Amino acid sequence: MNKHSELAVYNFAYLDEQTKRMIRRAILKAIAIPGYQVPFASREMPMPYGWGTGGVQVTASILGPDDTLKVIDQGADDTTNAVSIRAFFQKVAHVAVTTQTAQATIIQTRHRIPEETLQDNQVLVYQVPIPEPLRFLEPRETETRKMHALEEYGLMHVKLYEDIARNGHIATTYAYPVKVEGRYVMDPSPTPKFDNPKMHRSQALQLFGAGREKRIYAIPPYTDVVSLDFEDHPFEVQQFEEPCALCAASGVYLDEVVLDDRGGRMFVCSDTDYCEKRRDNGHVGHLNGETAGAVK
Amino acid sequence: MSDHPLLRVNAITKYYGSRVGCTDVSFNLWPGEVLAIVGESGSGKTTLLNAISTNLMPTSGTVEYRMRDGQFRDLYRMGEAERRFLMRTDWGFVHQNPADGLRMTVSAGANVGERLMAIGNRHYGNIRQEATQWLGRVEIDADRIDDQPRDFSGGMRQRLQIARNLVTGPRLVFMDEPTGGLDVSVQARLLDLVRGLVNDLGLSAIVVTHDLAVARLLSHRMMVMKEGRVIEHGLTDRVLDDPREPYTQLLVSSILQV
Amino acid sequence: MPTPLVVSEVAKSFTMHLRDGIQLPVVENVTFAVAAGECAVLGGPSGIGKSSILKMLYGNYGVDAGQILITHDQETVDIASADPRTVLALRRDVIGYVSQFLRTVPRVAAVDVVAEPLVARGVSHGKARARAVELLEKLNLPERLWSLPPATFSGGEQQRVNIARGFITDHPLLLLDEPTASLDAANRAVVVELIRAKKAAGVALLGIFHDNDVRAEIADRIIDVSGFRVTRDAA
User: Fold this and answer.
1) Least buried of A60, A86, C158, C189, by fewest C-beta within 10 Å?
2) pLDDT digits (tens, 9 = 90+) for C22-53
């Protein structure tokens, strides 16, 4: 008995071939209609809803034996969600895995887009909790589908209006709505709006899977993705006052890390692979010496 | 006086299965004219209103609307996109229950501004200014602009709903029992406000009400409905002061005098 | 110049459906005309149908038979068979009416109640209000009342608002239903003066006046309504 024999009851990448075909058809349709939410027959996965069941099904359907998989959660390769999904595919598909963005052919992500520019041989798979950007203002699915069909998107601006009225500026910082290829308004999943510009005309194929809500949507390579805004309150991304405390990178998305219970904290790259690579190349942040051991 | 009606309703009939909703109703509505449809509950007046305002597909009959280019269009032969666009620009619909016509969890300003954003206004400052102006016209203090309608009284909600509908300068407004759930004193204020706005803006309106006082105050012309049919119609004061049909006489004689 | 008002063989009855459908005949064969610059007065005892005739002329009551011909834009219109839109146009442009009682609208100031018929004809608010003030002044309505809604006014005050509203336009035909009933002598004199001015301007007036003195001063002719009274055996 070889060491995988007890897994013989599983098909490659866990899902049966019929299911994968069904999901691929949904993906093809999603690519053909950028930003449009395609319903699909979402399966039960061996993990709870909210843990990326949509993304996992999309990944399982496009994964081939020669692919190299990277999984990130909030930009990190080493958090529970990322580790377990990576282990899952190692186990059920025996594919190569990596934490290096440039090495991966498929990157499944929760809530971030890697800092390193993606290439045309890469696919980014997003885990999506609620695919419908209009949901919080219009609870009826029949109505939101009609609004998409008829391109009635005034409501989306109502949400941004409320933001400005309440906070003086557009305070939506994640799941910031975008218009895809001048047609469908889309929820980019709860990525920080910092990442929105990376979606625009990206060379990589971007796929979105929502398991509980049973929807798949896509942004094909080189597609226009425009963040919604007002003329007098234009879209802008978050600015960080200081560079990464560990690798001194600026112009990247930083996470706040609490260091002690006396108010000590630092800001470090949310993309761990990017940060490590910079440090390996000799970049040193202002806290690197003292705390590197603590966060590494 | 314009030589063309704004709306031509021709032989509208609506059956619910074998039950009659309304049957064979025809009339023209002219620019600047307010028509009241009166009758008791179940007389078919709301069915008629919904059938005319494209909320309910009639079993037979046509509804034609004169578009801004002067051409008449059959509303039920229009594409849905165009019909919905018409409804949120050139038409208004004031529901009896303001919660049906408002977004209760967004601010008053956004409620008024929504139609502007829907037709492509993308300047926050302008939208807000317009909303402020409209709140003033419906007598809501400007400092309530960021409050949600769920914090408003019934009368304020109804006034907000009216502002939300009128912000795009519609030519035709449908009202379903606009003063339905309100206290008498609040009703009077609302009616007067609506009357003033309709006069100032030259709106055409179709008002469904069971309250003859509302019809008297707001409308030029009225239709009395019973069992799905229009049994009497004419100039509002003529119908109320010299009712012809037995049922109309009963309605008029049932008004409480104070 | 055509005769502003011709009434021909008009009949009116009420059918009281709530009282077993009994017929209450009011008038029949009503036939008369009023010329421009003339003030005709409907005469006869009360309850004989004088107000009903005025109301039919104004389109407020339906007409069972006959014609009521009114000239509008050089065209002759039969108000007895006209559609509501035409009746409204006639009221706006041709027929003025001073009713016995003012139907008040909540929250509208007296001066705007008076100005409204002019505004409806396209006169600016400012001009219309200025003309309204002139008339209210002439009718001795205290200035402090001008900006208040007339609902709380006394009968005489309301009546003066009503008169001002009826007289503010230059309608060629003016119907007056006891406009002086609740007025004191001084204000009655003002109304008489206003009526004379209308006559001089070529307006055709038709009125009901129970006050003999006023009637004597302004009436060119009395139309005896008892002659139009329906007698049972005649039918």
Assistant:
1) C189
2) 999 999 999 999 999 999 999 988 888 999 99
